[in-house]
## 1
Amino acid sequence: FFSRARPMSKWNDHQAVRPGSVHTTTFGDQADQGFHGSVMDELNAELEAEIVAVKGGKPMSYRDDTSRPLQDLYSGSPTRSSPKRTRAIGERSPGLSPREAPRKERKPLVVGHGSSATILQPSAEPIKGEYVERDGEAWYAIRGFDQMPPFFMSVVSDSNFWMFISSVGALTCGRVDANSSVFPYYTVDKIHDSAHLTGPLTVLRVTTRDDGKTFLWEPFVKHPPAYCVHRTIYKNMLGNRLEFEEVNDDLQLTFSYSWGFSEKFGLVRKCKVTNLRKSPVEINIVDGLQNIIPAKTNMWLQDFMANLVDAYKWNEIVGPGIGLFCLFAGMSDRAEAVESLFATTVWQSGLNDPKYLLSVNQIGNFKKGLKIDDEELIRGQRGAFLTNSEFVLQPESDHTWMTVCEVGQTHASIAELEITLARNMHKQLSELVDASMAEADANMKRIMGAADALQCTGDSLTVMHHYANVMFNVMRGGIFIDNYNVEKADLCAFIEKRNTLGSEEWSKWLSGFPDTIDYTLLIEKARAQEDGNLTRLCLEYVPVTFSRRHGDPSRPWNKFSIVLKDANGNKKLNYQGNWRDIFQNWEALCMSYPNFIDSMIAKFVNATTIDGYNPYVVNKDQGINWECPEPGAAFANLGYWGDHQIIYLLKFLELSNQFHPGRLEKYLNQEIFSYANVPYDYLPWEKIIEDSKNTISFNDEKNEKIEFLVKHMGTDGKLVLDATNKVYLVTLCEKLLVPILAKASNMVVDGGIWLNTQRPEWNDANNAIVGNGLSMVTLYYMRRYTQFMIRLFTPLGQQRMLVSEDVAQWMQRVLAVLKQNEEALGGTVGDKLRRQILDLLGESASAYRWKVYKNGFGGKVEVCAAQVVELMEVLQKYCEHSINANQTDTGLFHAYNILVLGHDDAKVEYLYEMLEGQVSVLSSNFVTGDRAVQVFEKLFRSTMYRRDQRTFMLYPDRQLKGFMDKNVVPVEQCKSSAVRAVLEKGHKSILYKDCKGVVRWASDLCNARDLKAAVAKIGSINNYLEDLLALYEATFNHRAFTGRSGTMFGFEGLGCIYWHMVSKLLLASQELLYTAVEAGQSDAQMNLCRIYYDVRGGIGFNKSPDVYGAFPCDPYSHTPKHAGAQQPGMTGQVKEEVITRWGELGLRVEQGRICFKPRLLRASEFLRVKGTFEYVTLQGEITKMDVLPQQLAFTYCQVPVLFKMGKGYHIQIQSITGNLSFDGNSLPEEVSADVFARRGVITKVEVEIPEDDLI
């Protein structure tokens, strides 16, 4: 595998056949595709054996569940072996290619009778995905996309435009948010169902000059066409254009339309019809858009009051063909007039002598060849903007036109549009729109280029996929708009919103700065003021833009808002998101902006509570937000999420040490950090033991006080304050201790961290294990956290740091409990001892937080770094003991367990294995080297592996009971006294016996709580309550109920692949590989390299579109078993893959130095022919650079880096002060610092890579 003598031509041949572009009969292409090692070979052998066995009518025996037929592994499928297999590879007879295999002839389908009969032409076009270049731009094409099930796409813009569109053509789009849309903002299923009802509509009557016949053609209509057609969908790499194309072989015509954006004009639909004939044709066309909604129609009205909205609709044509779509009046039942003074505008250019239709009422007549008339006004009906035009299309020529939409238009803006359209002919309008769209393209390149999205390698699909990952990461996390330059005006506004009491003094200080301030200088100057709150605010200021929450019609519960400008049209800096989402995207972003790592750490720790948890939402101006009670709302809840704190915070800390060694140590004893004051009371320990599912009480009094403080002092009023109403400040040492102490205080030895804060962890579909669940996932990450803390604090020796006295006491209590029971780790920890340890730890946290709740923090004391190390070392031992105890007989590890509390003991019951458990244990820095390789081997053999997608589900799919098999009281329990008493007394609200004699629970009893209420209502059977509850549990086994994860079959449900978790696995394998490199473990390095590409091979961009179910280069959230990829775009997957891409290129940062260690770089990534690398300079200029054969190029911190294939490591640095050349694979620390600082000092880095180090 690591052969150094492999010739370049071999890699060229390999590059020509990418995994996913050609169907093969095996699950792997030697080292590059499919299973790891022998697993791949064994399964391929079984596949061929099974085909032979089935065709010969012989039974087939299977080695284990991994190789059983896929249908048998599907939930609800028969358990017998099925002779028909569903596989990604496509079965065929041995020795025959798919085209050679005999096929049964199909009889043609006919519509009509006699002379009017039409033979339908079902498309036999194979589905094919490929990278193409069109007009010098990179696109991905899916040919035959109409043969795939409908899939959903996101088309993005450089401004506040948004678009979500189905492959059937139906869509929703608009500006800012869903309340400003052109078409209804429905859920994804309704959009798929809206084909030819919402969005584009095109009908052509085509008359041929050859025979004078007129043909009716409706491009993209889903029903079997009467013509032989070929359909292709294209998406450009920038992600802001989408094009549909239909080629009609019978009519020898092509029709295509594309979507794009123009900040000046609006959403642009460009159309083209092309005559492929040698003779002219006459075209009579109706083209345009339908189901256009009025301006300012919010989501609620669109979805729940659509028919009432219709009654208010006013659709009219004004001026030179401008369609206006508005509500004639505001919708209200109040006794007051409400004017509606906004309209959506639609206009077209390019179809001459037009007739305009404002509804679809005449489309039927047009299809029949009848005359249609202009529509100038349509009231009380769905709006449409359709243009009828006739023209002659000369041989081998085309005709183009465009339709443009804009939302939220006023009388003033419509008047300006009338003048613009009246003064310009189609050619001039087209040029104006094209210029605006070209500027949008350039802006997209500048935005994404600033985050190092642009690359030039021999692997075009990897380049496109990396761009898409960066793009969606930036869309959620935001982008810094001017390197490290901070706008003073925005900083002053930020400080004033955060703290009005101190803003006047701080604004005076800021007045001495220029309008644009260097961020690094700002922090230095603020710290010199020795004002902790000033430093805190400056450090927490994160000046990003372009951020929005990850909402779309496939996740309508998330509401997005793209706010890039303020009310005056000025640029607005902002970010918004769930705290557990925004920080993961910032982790990838700070790889390109490493000098902002400190700000991200500050924002993270300043949002943690005194309990050691985080609120739900973080944003720029409001700081933090939390969930409030919503009685009766099934999807609303209070509580704290747990696992993300440890690993996400840790990743920033690790990055700080890599980029800026020694900087964290300086913050450890600086009181410049704060606590979030969330109005949740985490109940005392005895209450948690009593009812572990209800542990958080909303403190209304505190919430009201916080609202008062925010009104009078700014959003700093949401933070913990001291006695003088100033923000209570603590050191970084304290902020790093509190989260790990919170987790340690809920540790169940051998079980995990008790989930008793009313919220699940990363996979919130496991919502039902809250209260009785134990997270090994968090414990695995804790092990890595303790290792980091030991390395951070050990060199400090006896150095002392300030912490709150209450935190110090909490730390000492936890340390004492762990030390006291440390000897038990040498053997088996019994249930009683486990309970004793749990109670002592839990009581220590309870005592701490309730003292602070009631009295606030006491004084400050000093703790010694050695004490912190002592705590981390003993806690690490507990973690490692529990990790070893959670490795199963299969070689895999548990993710979550169940806690069963008795009177004085604590038992641990184990759930099935989950992918999340393997990812987190492989990220713990404890399971490494050969042991990690073994875990991967077992994982590939497990029932979590989906062979059809060559990747992993979140958990094994499993057989579930059918409806009639559910709710059956076990026969052996039917003779119990409790059952007999209930049945004899006829209490059918509890139990009944059906006509077949089966004893069942009443259908209204959904859980034990309902059963308790029903028994209490009857009263006379109260003495049987405990027996009935036990019987109910025996029937339904709710104790092992994990939540939505075990009851749904999409999203994070059964049979589903969650691509974020797969990408986490990819990152874990890469981290383990580089760990093996540093440790000199050559065998493990070789195996982990192969494993890495096995995991990577299952990710979408390595697949064909029909296997992936969508555009392969685009990230999607999940793939259920019954469908293709779902939920496009802003998934957590992108963060991990941005980071792994740097690892693939071998770019590492160690001790402040940029190093090049390409242990995963393929020789096939180097160009075979000369190419051009387009990138964005630090000054925002779009620049091109030649890249020769055996070279590749990318940017890092926007500095262009050129790799050359050579004999040894050699680096050439170009800078504004001169050039530098030397042997080696790392940049000097001062040069690296210049790159990190993005000052423009370093202009180019060229690195010669030894060919022997490539794979």
## 2
Amino acid sequence: MAEGTRDELFLYMISCFRPRLKRFIQVQPVLDRLPALSAEDRDRVRAAAQQRGAAAGAEELLRAVERGPRGCGWIREFLQALEQGGCGLAACYANPSLSQLPSPAEEAEHDLCVQLVQLLHGTLVDRMRAVPVAEKCLEMGIFQDEDMDRIQTVTDNHGNRDGARELLSRIVQKKDWFSSFLVALRETQHEDLAYDLSGNTGENKQNGMEQTTNEETEVTSQPGYVTEENLKQEENVDDSFSSENSVLETSIENNFVVSESDVSVGDRRVNNLDENLGQSYTTSDSDEDEEERRASPEPDLTLRDYQMEVAKPALNGENIIICLPTGSGKTRVAVYITKDHLDKKKRASEPGKVIVLVNKVPLVEQHLQREFSPFLKRWYKVTGLSGDSQLKISFPEVVRRNDVIISTAQILENSLLNASKEEEESVHLSDFSLIIIDECHHTQKEGVYNNIMRRYLKEKMKNRKLAKENKPLIPQPQILGLTASPGVGGATSYSKAEEHILKICANLDACRIMTVEEHASQLKNRVKEPSKKTVIADDKKRDPFKERITEIMTEIQNYCQLHPKSEFGTQTYEQWVIREERRAAKEEKRRERVCAEHLKKYNDALQINDTIRMVDAYNHLNNFYKEEKSKKTVRSDDDDDDEPAVSKQDETDAFLIDLFHAKKKQLKELTGKPENENEKLIKLRNTLMEEFTKTEEPRGIIFTKTRLSAFALFQWIKDNPKFEEVGIRAHYLIGCGHKSEMKPMTQNEQREVIDKFRHGSINLLIATTVAEEGLDIKECNIVIRYGLVTNEIAMVQARGRARSDESTYALVASSGSGAVEREDVNIFREQMMYKAIQRVQKMPQEEYLNKIQSFQLQSIVEKQMKAKRDQCKTYKKNPSLIKFLCKNCYKPICSGEDIQVIEDMHHISVKKDFQSLYHTRENKTLQDKNADYQTNGEIICKDCGQAWGNMMVHRGLDLPCLKIRNFVVVFADKKTTKHIFKKWGELPIRFPSFDYAAHYPSSDED
């Protein structure tokens, strides 16, 4: 064959079989054997392989070969490099002599064997000892020394499972590998794996026995194994197994760029060669697009050894709690268990359905998009829903249509409540075969997780009774709990800590609590422990701003004759002032009540001053008094804009507003003096500067107590140009609940901030506790708890965010705050927790089960007793016996019989002429809700300006929706009593549902 023709045919072979060559070439060993390749080409190939993966490296190598050199013997050199580099199968496809080119039947058979290995991949990785099998393959000539060295290194560094994966990825690249691999398995005491793989798939063919590729393969139908019939069904679902990330994900039918009419291999002859030689031999963009379109890259669902260790009992169907640190892949373990569970159910022809329960709305989408959907969507229907989902179908219908449902726990609880009311459409626990509970340490007391699990425990006890009576049992799901830290529940002794762990296990009906023991070193390498430091700010220096505020507070206390025993600016003072405000409201002592309300605002300002800047504390007070003045100067609804506003201030209001305005100028001047600035902020600034200049790509989180402090710290960083100079790009991350005075973040806003943080456009998050647990936030190299110390669970969760190499976990606090002491207590409790878990794990099984059963009975009895107490509290008499007074001026507003309820939560007044008692004004803090109602203005008392609630639009009607905390409730029974309630649910009476028909605005035309 002429040299020119040989070159052209060689290039043509690369063009034809490019997808296969990219899968079969190991870049590094081939590069080592290609001295003719330029240094520039070598660097380009290596960079592509390191940055974009093996397939990209192989593509870059093929392009380099296509470009040249064209010297004598360059084709032979490349083919020898392939052979000697352990890529014999690639050499068969690239050889222009066509002497070794596999026939279509051989090719299809190879692909079928690769598919079989892919489908049994989890079993092989779990049960195959990588090094002995690799040594046997080396001895038999399948592997070369380089293959062996790489498998040995991976196994030593990452464990046997990763070693097995490396072995499988390499062996499928070899020529005539399947038979030899089965022999190697048998000779290394893996007869069961060889038997599972063999059947009639191809071993007999390679041994000379005649067989066609479409004969049925018989494989045992044990867990993890498939028949060829199943394999074909999988092909029908999606027949593109090709992936640039894994050589095991190959496709039988989509590997050719050209059809058999272009390349005829039966008689070793190439047809239509002349027509095709004029075409370009490099892969064009359209070729790449076509290959990308055909390929369906899917992530490889595999577990590390430490993950498999904790998952094993669940894979055997046991109820367990998995305790793994933040960042170690708990959710991935849950996905693996889910797939294994559903696969087994499918093989056994049993119904299988999994629900994953989470305690925060953002976790629904996070788990769905980042974990469950990518790994399961090919085989199972996966969906997610929360209270914010716009469902067009009911929850029971969602459950019926899907295999895996990721949901907030409250949605399931609501549906179970409907089932207990025997409503038509409802869901039962028996509809699920596996329930996964994320952050399961919340399964205690009256939490929603525990309410769900109590139903489970009741059904379990009922089953015991049914079993004795030989009656059919209620099907019960398997339970899997996930947590980073179960905590100790405030325990101060090891016995109490152990009791807490046992109660969590009892509530989840767990046979055991799993932690990593055998592969602890692998886990330690995976989850880095940050270095810890405590930064103490001296709080002994003089604070003129604080002095002025305490002088104002003393003046107010003297005016209303209130005398606290606690120090200004503390939490105990805040608790005292709230108690006084409630007491004064009940006793109709308006002066004391209003003064207590204002004292709380000043106390808030002291706490803000202690945490953030003086200007933030000043703004807090200034905004409050602006709002107060606005409320006390109200226009009537009929007034024109030209009419003067009427003042609703009484003597107390005037005293308090005038007092603030008298001191306002002095307070504002003090905020402009930097020498009086908060010492803690200086320490925080120094810590941030130090940490953000240590590494090239720093990332950090500051945890703070309130939304207000998170926003104020964000403003402080924005206002300080030095932070920008060191590359700090900050944003706040707060919750989406509506209980705080500050506007919440929407879920979309939260998601956007987290995405920006993940991609690096934001590198510092200032977060409330919303970022402590669950949310998938990229690993950080600095985590700062800014004066915020809660419990040991929060400490473990927050510290787990600092999981980059050489990361730092810092506590910044003032010396007199007690934060350092509380942190020390948390460290002690964490150690106590791990010891308690070990004691529970080592407990004799019989003793463990007895204790669990005892705590389960206790939990159910406690719930029954609480239900009885709640029932006794329910006010049995006529709702008209209760009256509502304005909390501020004590004017009677309405009676209990004027209250009706919309959707079991919105309490509205239907009293005739109720509108004459209030004004409406704009409410800036309200957010639109996704429901068939909307909120408008705020309603305030016509006489005193006290807020009562909001106007809402329900099915076209404007209705006043009342907040019970703004009223004094008078019980006119045998003895008249007055009460203040925070929530309507605390009021011991139930009101009727809103009668829409009775209030529909009718007309003669209607």
## 3
Amino acid sequence: MAMAGSSSGGIDMDLYSRQIGTFGLETMGKLVQMKVLICGLRGLGAEAAKNLILAGPKAVVLHDDGQVEARDLGANFYLCEADIGKKSRAEACLDQLKQLNPYVSVSAHKGPLTEDLVAGCAVAVLTDTAQAELIRWDNFCRSRSPAIGFIGADCFGLAGRVFVDFGNSFTCRDKDGEEPRSAILAGITQEAPGTVHTHNDRRHGFQNGDWVTFREVQGMTELNGSEPRQIKVTGPYSFTIEDTTGYSPYLREGIVSQVKVPHTMRFFSYERSCVQPRPEGGPELAVPDLSKFGRSEQLHLAIQALLALREARGALPAPRDEAAVGEVLRIARELNEARRKLGDDAMSVEELDGDVVRRVALFARCVISPMAAFLGGVVAQEVVKFTGKYTPLHQLLYYDMFELLPASDPSDWQAMQDSRYADQVAIFGEAFQRAVGDLRLFLVGAGALGCEYLKCFSMLGAGCGRNGKVQVTDMDRIEVSNLNRQFLFRQTDVGKPKSATAAVAARQMNGSLQVQASEVRVGPETEDIFDDEFWESLDIVVNALDNVQARMYVDSRCVWFAKPLLESGTLGTKANSQVILPHLTQSYADSQDPPEESIPLCTLKHFPNAIEHTIEWSREFFEQLFSDGLKEVNAFIEDPPALLAKVKAEGSGSSQLVRLGAIRRALEQRDAPFDLCARFAVMEFLDKFHDSIAQLLHTFPLDHRTGENAAFWSGPKRPPAPIRFSADEDLHLDFVIAAANLYAGALGAPQCRDREKVRGMARQYEQAVGAFKPKEVRIKVDDKDSTQEGCIDDDAAVEALSKQMAELGRRMASAKPVVPVEFEKDDDKNFHIAFIAASANLRARNYKIEEVDFHKVKMIAGKIIPAIATTTAMITGLVSAELLKLVTLKSRKVEDFKNAYVNLALPLFILSEPLPPVQMTSKDMDPIIMGPVRALPEGFTTWDKVVIDIGDVTLKGFTDFLQKEHNLDISIISAGNACLYNSFLPAHKSRLGTKVTQLYEDVAKQKISAKRTHLVLEVSASDADDGVEITMPAIRFEFRAGAGGAGSAGGSGGAGTSAKAASRSAPGGAAGSPSSGGPTSPPAARCRWLCPRRITP
């Protein structure tokens, strides 16, 4: 394992793979050479240090000589009770921080900072530092050549700030970290300015001010190979460039590509920014929360006044020191008046907000985990930006969480002063802290997000009380690539369960944490484990998942059981969070991202124009050769006639020939020497990168024209060129080595990794290859083409080969099976990505597409989600603040909660109020059924449900009940994917006499657990009087009489809205009114509409 930052310059690709997917190798190469100083190790400093060490600089120096206090344990997760009063914070944290990354040299500096120490660092981060010291060290860093990056950050209870100064002239080489975009040209006008039109198969995605270059333009060749030029976007398929009237007329073709052009940024000193925080010519201060315009300016003055008081007193004021609050208010007013007189050279506000100043001063000495995690993620990412990647903060970020404050000051805020929760209690009170401790939480996922959440729970004391509990589940085992961001794991944990390992690590941070770990997937198949009783026992659910399907399922459970859900996700430097509150906000399923663009089949197969197309093709090529194809070999060995019949029934004759030929070849070459595997690889090379391309050009020559007399090879259809195999070409040999070794391993033949030996084998087959002879082949030109692909005589060839295969099957009756390859993206020595990378770049070479490196192929082919520790820590800080709000959900307004979208690369912070749930309303004309639809009740949402408690009746009893009680004619009844009844199918009439539960078991082929008391039914119905289609909430069918009840349908507990409080009877209306009884119902039959805050049905 090559050590990052070692003399060899190697970077551990296994450890840093997801991070490199975000930063890129160039940035990683710069980062591993950086030495960073971090001063102050209360919560914020510890978070920044943790995130930065995971990122992998060369060295991190810690500095904090302050003695550990009990309150420090509420935000610094690497301190323990034994450290209190005995060690400095830097000394106490050192060993734990060292363990995060063996490639980073972590040390602690004792005594005052020295100029020699700071001068030896690339970046200095100062937290919890006095104003005079901030000014001194920022000026020192600016005076160096080159300038040392300086970052100052503070956490003052529920308010915080970050300041960045990278010197007078800092070069940012990539403002956003996004992959450069490319587009295919459709035309360029000769005018001033010239308008460039791109092909309408895809939006160009450029923005105003982007820089682009041109290549392969025919006609207006002046554009080819010239310097980058700025553009002005005029539409999704057009933009303008310079005056093109003097250029040659555009004829055809061409590609325009975005270029990342470095730009210079000027930063101002901290001393100047104290007076005028707005950069010269820059915008107003950043506003992270869209509901708080002007708040950043108020926070700036409040914090400047607070720091002035600190300079005078030598320390920040104690929590809730009213005298200090008055003094800070006085100073803030004086500062504002003084700066108003300076005009444009200073920043002032029209009217000082006394509440903002008060809230900053009251809790200035407090540090809570949510704010520390948020700021720590931001600070560590700003350090990474000193490499030149991404846009640095320019220059101040202010943020507050004042919504967390209780409506009135708690009377018990002075309790627990010698506790790890002292800072939280000072803000929220002891009773609130007890409620936090008694929370019952369900954390789904123990990866990067899950590790951070468990840390947050430990710091906050969530689930640490006598009645509290945290349940965490994750099916996965720990891998090396996890260690770069899943900070609760170590190298010795590789292979262990994530959930159990994370639970143990989190409990070490707070011994009171009541955590239970499992390795069970949360899904329909585990509803016996995560049953009704389990969901109803919860207060809050927190998702830490990485796929939409799992998120959707957990969301559906939370909606059904009316449980608050905290949702979040990350993608590189981007992150988002969503607060989902029963009956108050949208659920996760109410608003989904648009589906990913799929690549048309014909584009993949014959007409690629982007590297993503060739990588996807190569991934399928890998599966065809070494997985699906070899599974068919084993199926043939087991039952030759069945496999032959299956192949002949699927696909075209051409594909059948390929499949049968692959089976025969594998069987005939069992236990063959490696040189035959090398021959196989060379033959595959010739087939895919020469013969098939030559065949395509034979069918569609370069001068081929369409039926509309347009050039066939134009726009997205790039004309390919065959590649002749040469063992002396490195890329050709890469393919042969990978393919031959994969094939040998599957067949049980010995492998050969000696490059020169394989080259020699390949060379002998290269010389034996005959000339290609084209065939008459039918090929689809796009996905709408109904042409049956293949040769005219394919069917006859399939019949002949099938007869040969039948005889081969009889001879191979006792043959050993081959070993299909299961794709594994994270082992760079198994030839999987090596094969795909070589194949993708060879196909790119066929089509003159720019080739890419191994790592990019790995990220795309492995569908690896770029991930970094900084973004993860930042977003979990924001989400954990929302968790604290949920403790007092019943007394809160929905406006108190915040959804977030953050892109640390820009940096961009957008916090907004959650949207209300989507309401179902009646329509005079529904575009799907082409007629009117009536909502029952009007305005219901996905949170609403109907509880029918009439016992385990027959299907007829159920439909009769709905008909009598609600005047509904039922047409379809379903439970999940099982259709229990369809009135349009005559055969379903016989089901009416069957009990609903028995019918469910028969149709779904799933036994109902003894624990289950209800089924979730969806009905399609119409009004019995006028025939209008009815849409209504899902039905909770209680088949165990009396098992239901208002409390069982909703949640109860401190965080949830109980169904008992939310439920109500539904009096009269057009659809009838719920009442007891019914033609087949027992006397206790009931129907309850759980639709709070809705018009009655």
